[in-house]
Amino acid sequence: MHLILYSILYLVTSLCVAAIDGNPFEGYNVLGNPDFAPLASQVDTCAASKGTFYWVTDYSNGAKIPSLSESTKSAGSKTILPIVVYGLPGRDCSAASSAGGSSGPDNYYGLIDSIKRDLDPDVRTVFVLEPDALGNLITYGQTPSCKAAGDTYKKGIAYALKTLNGNNTAIYVDAGNSAWLGDDQKISSLTDIIVAMWKSADKPKSFRGLATNVSNYQLWQNSAAARRANKYGDESTYVSAFSTSMAKAGLEAHFITDTSRNGVAISSTSGFPCNIEIAGLGPAFTTETGNPHEDAFVWIKTPGMSDGTSDPTAPNHDRSCSSEVSMGGAPAAGQWFKDYFQALVQHANPHLTCSR
What we know:
By secondary structure, this protein is an alpha/beta fold.
C-alpha cells in the first residue's frame, strides 16, 4: 500500500514540476570545484576562490554529489551547485583524447538516475549536458564513429533532460561555439535536434537553454574585422542568432558561456583547441553580460585541467595536442596541468580580483 501511495505521489509531483522563475544565477554565487581549489591555490589564491563547474563523467565522481550538496548548503542559501554531465557512451566521437564514456545506454541511464537520486531538493543545481556531443553530430555525423553514436547521444540527452527535471534545477544543453557552428545551416540543424529532444523528454520545465564555448577559447565580443569575416564571429553574436532560431522553432532559450579560457583572442589559424599556450582566463562568474539572452558568464571548463596529452606515443593522443600552438608537457585529458594553469593566470583578461 505504501509503495502504491509513493508511486502516485511521485507521478503527481513529476507532472507538477515548477520551473525556476527567470535567470537561475541571478542573486546567487557559484560553488567552487573542490578538486580545483586546493590545486589552484598553489598558484593563485584569487583564481582558486572562483566558482567552477564540477564534472560528472562516471559513477565514481558522481558519488560526490551528496557531499557537494552539503558544501553548497554550508556556503549559504544563495549558492548554486554547478554540474557538467559528460558521460555519454562513445563520448567525443570525433576525437581521441577525451573519448570514452559509459559502457552503453543502460549504464548511462543508470548514471543519470544516480545523479537524480543524490540531488538535494533544497539545493539549487544547474546542469550543463554533454559538451561537444551534438556539435559532433552536426559536423562529423557522417564519420563511422559519430554516425554510430547519433541515436545514442540524442536518446541519452533526452533521458537526462527528463530525469533531471525538478523544482530547483536548471538545465543547459551544450551548443558548441561560434567558430565551430557559427553559420545559419548549422544553427538551424542543431536547433531542430534540440527541440526534438526537448519534446521527446516531455518538454521539461527545467530546460533553461544552451551552453556555449565549453572548453573553448572564443571571445564574447570580437573585433569588427572578425565579424566581417564571419558574421557569427563571437559568442555574443552566436548567442543572439541561436536565440532567434530557437524562438522561431517555438522554444525559448537562454544561454550561459564558458569564459574559463577566452581572455585572449585566439586566431582561427592557431590550430585546434588543445592546451593553447597563449590562452588566458576570461571573466569569472557574473550575470552582468550585456545581452538579454545571456544568463551568465561562468567557468565551466575547470581551468588548468588538460585537454589531452602532448605525448604522441601515449594512448588516446590527439595530434592537435602536440601542435606548435599547444603547451608541451601536457598530461592526459582531465589531469591537472600546473604549468598551463600558471599561463592562464598570467594571461588573464580582465585581471583577477578576489572580490567574488
